[in-house]
Design a protein that fits this description.
Layout lengths: L3 H9 L8 E5 L11 E4 L2 E3 L4 E3 L2 H5 L2 E6 H15 L4 H14 L14 H16 L25 H9 L8
Antiparallel strand pairs: 1-2, 1-5, 3-4
Helix pairs in contact: 1-4, 3-4
Bound molecules: zinc ion (ZN).
The site of zinc ion has 8 residues, from helix 6.
Length: 172
């Protein structure tokens, strides 16, 4: 087996071909410097449009992840965050990138929240920016007994629905 650490070293010394991909074994969440990994390229069958991987990689349980250029970018990003050539940081960034298709802002970043939570948090921030509903200015929507938020003739809920074109997601 070849460790991810050895592969990172090969990439650092440019000992890889431009069409190489990073293959790794096991659960991506467990990826570490000692994980079995390798560089190689899939082959394409033009007739069936099927991708096949080096047979010895398949035997080792290696799965294709990111291309060599992306792996290089992960290493460069890790070195920048670590402010040094740091293979452990590189493994950390590669693991995050493979799992979430993004570069984290910090080393050891927690998993990003699921998408729905992200949207809810953005909605909450939007609503918070609207400010408190006024007591002396009623919402213009028929039958609504709430106050309008500053900068709008509507209450928080009705302003949200008016601007976003979808139901207000909160209870308040
Ligand atoms: Zn209203």
């Amino acid at each position: 087996m070849t460790t991810l650490e050895a592969i990172i070293q090969r990439l650092r010394s440019n000992d890889a071909s431009d069409d190489d991909w990073l293959y790794v074994a096991g659960d991506f969440a467990d990826l570490s410097l000692s994980t079995d990994a390798d560089l190689g390229s899939p082959s394409y069958d033009e007739d069936t449009d099927e991708e096949s991987h080096p047979p010895e990689f398949t035997k080792r349980g290696l799965c294709i992840t990111i291309d060599r250029q992306t792996a290089d970018q992960c290493i460069a990003w890790a070195d920048r965050l670590a402010e040094a050539q740091d293979n452990a940081a590189a493994a950390d960034i590669i693991r995050y990138y493979i799992r979430f298709d993004a570069w984290p802002e910090t080393l050891g970043a927690p998993d990003p929240p699921p998408t729905e939570e992200v949207f809810l948090r953005m909605d909450r921030e939007f609503c918070d920016m609207l400010g408190d509903e006024r007591k002396d200015v009623a919402c213009k929507r028929d039958g609504c007994d709430r106050g309008a938020v500053p900068m709008s003739v509507l209450c928080r809920r009705h302003h949200f629905e008016n601007v976003k074109g979808r139901p207000y997601p909160f209870e308040d």
